[in-house]
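Quick log. Single chain, no ligands specified.
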Amino acid sequence: MLRVESLTKQYRTGDKALSGVSFDMPAGQVVGLIGPSGAGKSTLIRCINRLVEPTSGRVLLNDCDVTHLGRGALRRARRHMGMIFQEYALVERLTVMENVLSGRLGYVPFWRSYFRRFPQGAIDKAFALLARVGLTEQADKRASALSGGQRQRVGIARALEQDPELLLIDEPTASLDPKTARQIMRLICEVCRERSLPAIISMHDVLLAKMFVDRIIGLRAGEIVFDGAPAMLNTATLTEIYGEEDWTQIHQGDDDGDERAMAHALEPPPEERMAGLA
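-> predicted structure:
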């Protein structure tokens, strides 16, 4: 379980990126974090794992107060917080397998990581994760040879290699085409439910959030202005989050058209359907 209590981030200039943000997340819940640019979405994610130091407040992951840990204890706590980045953050010259195994760097001695000598158990797990994200045949390819969707799948496998208790995901679909974006969101939600793994996903695509996540938190100017089920998002709440705009396209066909669109989006791609018939 994740608990965020009155989290605030204020810079030396006096600007506040976050102002008293509080929420709880149970195991297995996938939360979509939405809001305009500069609302504090990425700052919130990075304050949770202290890539950005919060000014005040607390972050508790399974009763561990992350905000008050020393350097060594924080390094150990970060093992349990998998991070998936918009720009993938892969080492381009390394193979897919080596990138996935880098998720174990917090668990192995330096000499093992330097010589890329990981325990057999970690290697076996990496192969299993590559199979889960559909990249078994790409294991020996360099990361630089992959498509954007494949790179993001490597990022997901690498995060899961950590055995995380929480996933923090920053704009995972921003650089992807619509079909690949749906596939990546589907994969993230599936693995979270399989593992009862909570996840926070910062995203700009409101429709994609409505289609896949369990809960939406809307930020504006560093404050939570909406927290509820995707079905609760309406013109009034979207206006409160983003400001005045014509939101009819988001809600058009809510009674039947959106259900058909969602069913189509949740349908596995052809290659996965064929695999299921084999």
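The first strand starts at residue 2 and ends at 10.
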